[in-house]
Every structure is written in structure tokens, then in C-alpha cells.
Design brief:
mainly alpha, two-stranded parallel sheet, two-stranded parallel ribbon, 6 helices, about 40% helix, about 10% strand
């Protein structure tokens, strides 16, 4: 019998080879049709900005777009951040222009598309404290719901990732808006006074539940 670990390693090698073959095929077919993929465009721009003529290209792009606003920044990756960082930094690494990055690490859910939460965290760490603004008021949810969520994380802990230090993702208590709840959430016409509730499944066998 072959050890299952050996089989697992061979399977990983096989699928890695398949992925490399698929990437090579996609690149060859695009080249044959004189087409470029979005990823290729980003990679080429990144390479150009970090090449011999990178500073001249960065200066030209910055002159054309001295201000940029990037929403959902938590979904960027290292290549995209590298492009923006090169454009909005001088040759002496000092920042220039206005690069506004809007993001929420708690919404970083697109890793399967290439999103890299570490790129967002690096970008955030490069911004001085006086250059950061926090959107700390929830204007979408009722006051009761905001209070309930804050209470939940106060009890369960604010860490949302395996990293417990400052480099991890954390929940920060938010404020509710000052507007009145003119149209409160109701169930069968009755106002829901407890908008956040947890229900345990009585028939769930915790001992045999899959992990």
C-alpha cells in the first residue's frame, strides 16, 4: 500500500502541473489573437513602473492623474498596490499627490479572485495616523441592531482572524446614526425589539459534527 501522504503529494504536483499548462495555453492563445488579459495588463504596467524607465512613466501617470480614489481597496492585490504606490511616491519615497484608499478588511472575501488582505494591510500601515479617517457610524441599521452587534463582539472578542495582534483583522465598535427608526423591522406586524438572535439546532450532534 502507498502511504496516503505520498498520494496527496502526487495529486498536488499533478494539479500544479495542470494549472501551469492551462496558464501557458491561455497566454499562447491570447498572443495568437493579439489579445491581452486584464491580469497581463496589470503585470506589464507593474513591470514597466519598476523597470529602468519606471520613474519617467510614474511621473507621466502622476501628472495626468494627481488624485485617485480607490474604493473597496481590501480587494486589491500586491500587483495593483505596487502600481499605485509607484505612481504616488517621489523618487525619494516621499508621498505625492492624493491617493485615497477606501476599504474594510472585514469585507475582504475575494481571495479566490486574487484579492490579498496583506496588500491592504501594508497599504494601511504606510499611512500616518493623521492621514487616516474612520467611518464609525452605521447609517443603514437600526440603533437596536447596532447595539446588539457591538455587545456580541464585546463578549466574544474583537479578533476576526487567527492573528491576534495589530496585524490581524478586528471588529471595532460602531455608532448608530442619529436618525429615528421611522420604519422599524417587524415580524408579523410586531416590532422586533431583539434584532440579533441566535438559535441552536436541537438535532445537531456536536460530537459527530464535521469540522
Amino acid at each position: 500500500l502507498i502511504d496516503s501522504g505520498v498520494l496527496h503529494f502526487k495529486a498536488l504536483r499533478f494539479w500544479a502541473a495542470v494549472a501551469d499548462w492551462a496558464k501557458a495555453q491561455a497566454k499562447a492563445r491570447l498572443a495568437a489573437r493579439s489579445q491581452r488579459s486584464f491580469d497581463a495588463l496589470l503585470t506589464d504596467v507593474h513591470a514597466a513602473l519598476h523597470g529602468d524607465a519606471g520613474r519617467a512613466l510614474a511621473d507621466t501617470l502622476h501628472a495626468a492623474w494627481p488624485v485617485a480614489l480607490v474604493d473597496e481597496f481590501q480587494d486589491t492585490d500586491g500587483i495593483q498596490y505596487g502600481i499605485l504606490d509607484a505612481i504616488y511616491r517621489k523618487s525619494d519615497t516621499a508621498v505625492r499627490g492624493h491617493l485615497v484608499k477606501i476599504g474594510d478588511p472585514k469585507q475582504a472575501i475575494y481571495r479566490f479572485r486574487g484579492g490579498d488582505i496583506r496588500a491592504y494591510q501594508r497599504a494601511a500601515s504606510n499611512v500616518p495616523d493623521d492621514g487616516k479617517m474612520r467611518l464609525d457610524t452605521n447609517r443603514r441599521s437600526s440603533r437596536n441592531y447596532v447595539a446588539a452587534v457591538n455587545a456580541w463582539y464585546e463578549l466574544s472578542g474583537e479578533a476576526l482572524s487567527a492573528q491576534q495582534d495589530a496585524g490581524g483583522v478586528h471588529y471595532h465598535a460602531v455608532k448608530a446614526s442619529d436618525r429615528k427608526d421611522d420604519s422599524p423591522y417587524t415580524i408579523d406586524g410586531v416590532i422586533c425589539e431583539r434584532p440579533l438572535q441566535f438559535h441552536a439546532a436541537d438535532d445537531l450532534d456536536q460530537a459527530s459534527a464535521p469540522v
